[in-house]
Amino acid sequence: MLRSVETTPHPDDLTLLRYVVDELNDIERGHVDLHLRSCPPCVIAVAELRDLDGILRDHKETVLGRPDEDSLPADDPFRERPEIVDRLPSVFGFGGPGFLANCQGATREAGPIRDRLLAAGDASFAAELESLALDRLVHRYALGYALQEAVRRIALGPLRFLRFAELAVARLQQAPTRSFRDIPADQMTLTEFAFPLPALIAEARLLAGVARNWTGEYDRGAEDFRRAYQGFGEGKGSEESFATVELHEAQRRCFAGQAALGLPLASRSLATFEAYGLDEDRARALYARAVGLSYLDRDEEAILAFGAARDALGAASLWGAYVSAINGIGTCLIKLGRLDEARREYARALRRTVSGERPAAHAFIRYNLALTLFEHGYYRQAVGAFRGASALFNRQGMRADALVARLYLIEALASCGSLGAAHSELDQVIDQVRDDQTLDPSTIRELQAALAGDQPNLLRLTELREASEGEIRRRLTS
Fold first, then answer.
1. Which of 100-114, 215-229, 438-452, 462-476 has the highest mean pLDDT?
2. What is the pLDDT of residue 67?
3. Residue 134 burial by CB count (10 A; 0-12/13-18/19+): exposed, middle or buried?
4. Which candidate, 224, 239, 226, places its Cα nearest to that of 85?
5. Confidence (pTM)
6. Is the pLDDT of residue 289 over 90?
7. Are the C-beta atoms of residues 433 and 476 closer than 8 Å to each other?
8. Residue 157's CB: how many other CB atoms inside 10 A?
9. pLDDT for position 357
10. What is the pLDDT of residues 190-209, one digit of tens each?
């Protein structure tokens, strides 16, 4: 659908969209006005965009949520987006085929350097960063792409990528930094125009904040996101970059118990990604908004929102987040006492992911079903789900997840009075971990003691399972 300004005389669709919502400067608007006088196809495209804009405005409450989601307190650093710096390339002698060719060439060269940065170990991050010449566009692109890819891969190693982000910020702050808007025309370089240094620092701050969402350092993450928001504003900025920060800050606020302040940001980011046709980001924003609704106990609305997120995430093949959306639906349904509906939702998701291409997603959906049942007191129903999840994890060599599922299975059996089965399961676990010492002998003895007698100590069993989970994951993933 998108037309490239490099190959046709037409404005591209993004320019026409900005024209419709009155985001062009006077010079750009004049060029589009002139073009529309003699181009019926573009006139039709503008009319269609105006119709779409009107539909979105008419249905704002449906798309974005309730009116009380549209604003934030006056002192909130995210109340309004930073102003986008609009400086034309021609003013600085840039633009045209030469400028685009330089940027495209730098992008191609950046790929191997990006891959090297992402593959670096903790000990070599600093050396790789020091080797970058930050006055070269190819090195800025390489680092920027590495930081963006690290955000996408964050689940693979939050602590590792947090270290990368912190070292990147330290390295970037060694270079003199000025706001893009403050650089005089006679001092502007191609590198600074194409990828301003403040924007690169903002990418590193964004990664740090996302990593802290995973590690639970929510207060420090708030500062990272605030600085990323400000940094994108100082580095030219774009609606997409601001919406990306808002998406992750919305999640941080929900995790930190501030869902009422996170929901407006999730809705705002969703509107931007909808307008720009960014399907993967739209799917993530739908999920963030659903999380906000669920944290506010608006469960009926959250179920609908999680359903929209589920469909969008599945269409985008974002299976990790898809699993989370399924779990969100199940949790809300069970909170409302609709157990049968929750089980049907999980069953549909299991059928969709039964393909051999998605075995991990299938296993985690079964595990999350078990966990949701367990956490809401449906212990007998959780037993079979934990048993199935453990078997699926084992088939894929996911030993830590399989063993944790078996510990939950023991607790579920004990909680519903099946003590003989719980003892038998614990004996099997002990046989499994004896050789590689996945669990300390003292932990094993305490688990046996907690199950002893006619009345097992369920509180102690829960404490031991929680402590053992961390121990298992450290030993089997180190």
1. 215-229
2. 38
3. middle
4. 239
5. 0.70
6. yes
7. no
8. 16
9. 64
10. 788 878 889 999 999 999 99
Tokens matching residue 399:
């030993």
Q: Which tokens hold the place of 397?
A: 């060599």
Residue whose entry in the numeric block shows the structure tokens 């992402």? 118
Q: How far apart are CA 278 and CA 284, in angstroms?
A: 10
Burial class from Cβ neighbours inside 10 Å (0-12, 13-18, 19+) for residue 406 reads: buried
Of residues 216, 201, 138, 192, the one with CA closest to residue 165: 201
CA-to-CA distance for 32 and 23, rounded, in angstroms?
12
C-alpha distances in angstroms, 295 versus 54, 260, 303, 321?
31, 9, 12, 17
Binned at pLDDT 50, 70 and 90, residue 262 comes out as very high
Q: DSSP letters of 60-86?
A: HHHHH--GGGS---TT-TTSSPPPPP-
Contact between residue 143 and residue 195 where contact means Cβ atoms under 8 Å apart: no
Whether the CA torsion 374, 380, 381, 382 is positive or negative: it is positive
Q: What does DSSP assign to residue 173?
A: T
Tens digits of residue pLDDT in 24-47: 776 777 777 788 777 777 777 777
Measured CA distances, 310 to 287, 302, 359 (Å) = 8, 12, 18
More confident: 478 or 428: 428
Helices (H) and strands (E) counted in the chain, each on its own, are 23, 0
- The two structure tokens encoding residue 437: 């010492």
Contact 89, 99 (CB under 8 A): yes
At a CB cut-off of 8 Å and minimum separation 6, what does 165 contact? 147, 150, 204, 205, 207, 208, 211
DSSP codes of every residue in 7-64: TSSSPPHHHHHHHHTT-S-HHHHHHHHHHHTT-HHHHHHHHHHHHHHHHHHHTHHHHH
What is the number of other CB atoms lying within 10 angstroms of the CB of residue 115?
14
pLDDT band at 53 (very low <50, low <70, confident <90, very high): low
3-state secondary structure of 451: helix
Where are the extended beta strands (E) located within 123-183?
Answer: none
Structure tokens at 137: 């566009």
Are 188 and 243 in contact by the 8 Å Cβ rule? The answer is no
Sign (positive/negative) of CA torsion 64, 65, 67, 69? negative
C-beta separation of 79 from 108 below 8 A: no
